[in-house]
Every structure is written in structure tokens, then in C-alpha cells.
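Exercise: predict the structure of this protein bound to zinc ion.
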Amino acid sequence: MDNSESPKRYVSAVAQTCTQHGEYVSMLIHGTWSNCVACDLAAENAAMAGEREAWRKELSARAWNAKLGRAAIPPRFADKHLGNYDPLCAEAEQALLIAKRYAASFPAVRKAGTCLIFVGDVGTGKTHLAVGIAHQVLEQGGQAIFASVRSAVGSIKETWERTSTKKEAQALRDLVEPDLLILDEVGVQFGSDTEKLILFDIINGRYEATRPTIVISNLAVAELEGYLGARAFDRLREGGGRLVVCNWESYRARRAA
Ligand SMILES: [Zn+2]
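Solution:
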């Protein structure tokens, strides 16, 4: 009888002492003396815990990237935070303070659906402030979404095409559900009645769901009210929605000077 396949031929055992776990039996297996089983198990558990932690980190990075991707903040505003907004005058300082307070009290803002309107000249940093708020909402774990009126209205109109796989109601929900929606460039386009109706649906939808909206516009206050219509404008002002008028000298003009 051939016993060459029997492991017994290769095994011998010796009593050993582990400094941590006390006595154990070490066996010679394929030319290697086995370690303390408790130590091996601990090492295996540590390796598994490390892998679980790495996996958890990867999933959380993926979720963060997905959230950031959904936020759709334009690349040129990607690094605009409230912390790196440089107020050039007392009015800008005041606007920054309002933005900081809005972001810091976002749990209450979100609950009440309190809106914010930034109006004023091009190049005063309105979008920087709004994006800075969005970054803080994202960091808090909320979902903020940035959209120009053109793209927001466009996402609804797209669903009217016969080839569209998305329903209009879903496209509207995508704009109504996020914790914060920033609507940029309000009033840049002339705006057909259809576009104004869609814009009203978005603002009103968020109002009814008590979701806060930040509106950014280069129009003067009266012009913006005329553009949005009194009803939508009232929705934005209701419940303490603040109007921040940014009419100081343009940042770009100053930098150029
Ligand atoms: Zn041990």
C-alpha cells in the first residue's frame, strides 16, 4: 500500500508558547511550522477589517462623486466656497454674511423651504456665493443641484419629444426633490410663455414641497418680478426669503484695473 499521499508523513507537532495566547501546538506542514491559531485568526480578522474599511471608503467616495456629479456645479465654480469669497466692500461682506448664515442654518432653511434671491450686476460674485452654499449643503450630506434656467427648462421640454424615455413628471421631480436648487441666469433668455410656465412649475413645485430655491439673476428687482410673475416671486419671498442686491463694482472690472 502506497502511503505517499497521506499527510501524516509530513506532519510532526511541537508544543509552543505564544506570548499572547499561551500554549499551542505547532505543526510542520509542507516544511513550515504553523503559527498560533489565535494569532492567525486575529491577523485574518484585522486584514478583513482593513478590507471592509477600504470598501466602505470606496463606496462613500463613489456616493460623494455621484452626489457631486448630480449637483452639476459648472467646472469654473468647482472650487468656489464661502471660505474663499473675498468681499471687496461692506455690501459684499454683508452678502457673504447672509450666505454663510443661510448655509449654517440649512437644516431650518430646508424645513421651512426658505428661498434666497441674488440679483445684481455681472461679476459681483453672486454665483460664487450660491455655489459656496451648495458646497456646504453637499458637505452636510444634503443634495444641492445647480442649473441654469435654460438647462432646467430644457430638461422638461426634452421630455416632450417622441423619442424621450423620460416622462415630464419625472423631469420635474428631479428638479423639485433635491434639498436645494440653484437656478442661475434667470431672465437671461427672453423667455416664451411656455418657458415661463415651466419655470413657474419648478418654483411652485418646490414651494409646495417646502424645498428651498436660490435664484440668481442679473435683472433689477422689478424686472425679475416682472419676468417671473408676481405669484412665483411671492413664493420665493414667502417665509423670510431674502433678497440680496449685489450692485457693487464688478470683481472682474476691478481685477482688470
Ligand atoms: Zn497567539
